[in-house]
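User: Run a structure prediction on this.
Assistant: Running it now.
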Amino acid sequence: MAPGFLLPALAALLLLAPVAYAQPDEPIVRVHVLARVAPQAVTVTADGAPLTLYADRTDTPVATLQPGQSAEVERVGDRLRLRAPSATLQAEVVEVLPRPGEALALRTGANRKRYRGALSVELDRGRRALRLVNYVPVEAYVASVVASEYPFDEVEGVKAQAVLARTYALRARDLSQPFDVTDDTDSQVYRGADAETAVSRAAAEATRGEVLTYGGALAEATYYSCSGGHTANNDDVWNGNPLPYLRGRPDPYDAACPDHRWTTTAPVSGVLRALSSRFGGGVTGVEVAARADDGRVTRVRLLGNGRTISGNEFRAAVNAAFGIRTVRSTHFQLSRDGSRYTFSGRGFGHGVGMSQYGARGQARQGRSYRDILGFYFAGTDVRPLRDGYDGVPVRYASAGAAPSGGLVPYEPRTARARQRAADAHPGNERAEPVRRLAW
């Protein structure tokens, strides 16, 4: 993303970049990184500052990497083997701790990324691969996600995205699980320290600790590319209870989106094959069975096998076969011309919550990030972070110093203590699930 023209207020904020990461008691987000790679081995490198390595959650370091030195962790059967310059050993878990504010370099195959915060490596027995979890301070996480998810420079729009990225991550935390979010579109796209930009760091700093709330709890902070002129009710897109702050409304701000209006085609045979494969076979045709008040397709009837599926399920099945730009939203008209289906639609994405192009349009008209969030999430508040949202303690990760001077990756350190902490906070069971943000 090219920096572009920065307003004076943002230029002043850039004097603060990079963000002062790992503030005392700053929340930690546990990100399952490189999940889709299913790595069998990883190499970690000290990137400009020493790294401290621990094994099996003990408090005594097993090795220290000086700048430029590397260590390898690989799967050997049902164990890990750590090879460091000063030690070779087997373990169940390997933890890698940089100094506060520093980053570590991680390489697996052709993937090389730098991450702030600590790294935990253990075996994902179900997938027979390594599970890599980055324990990253939330503001560093936000700076990376904003740069990866929001491709614009307008200050107030970037700040709105920062509040949503922070809210989404903290609402997703669940101490009963081994990680909170993934680094891809199953959660939010997170590419580590190298993805950060001056603009995204400034937005994280300008909104430090601010989250979107409704009724005293973290709101469901969903977003997408553009609405096509009208946002969607959450219950028209996903099965679930209607949320008062996720009601569809006319959106005049995203007309500049290149997907505001679109037309695509796909072969009839391929569409019917994809639907048959996913929904029980025998599909001979499709027709729209129901629409929401704003025109979005809510139900699609599958001719031949008698099933009716949601518009979102239809879109997902077709896009899995032909790519995400085939049925770009559920706001479409469907027609058949010989051997091809034609989709004529509006917008790109699920349409629930904030339109990113709409946020940009509002920012260009001088509206603040609070105005933008208030428009797309009516009745919500932007408030400073506090303990106990949704029953999950905000500061469950310690920022204290380990004996080596590194950053303790999480607290409590043991699985048994983590389970006790989860049992003590039954509010983790939420009335609404944390939504996938995949377009």
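The chain has a mean pLDDT of 84.
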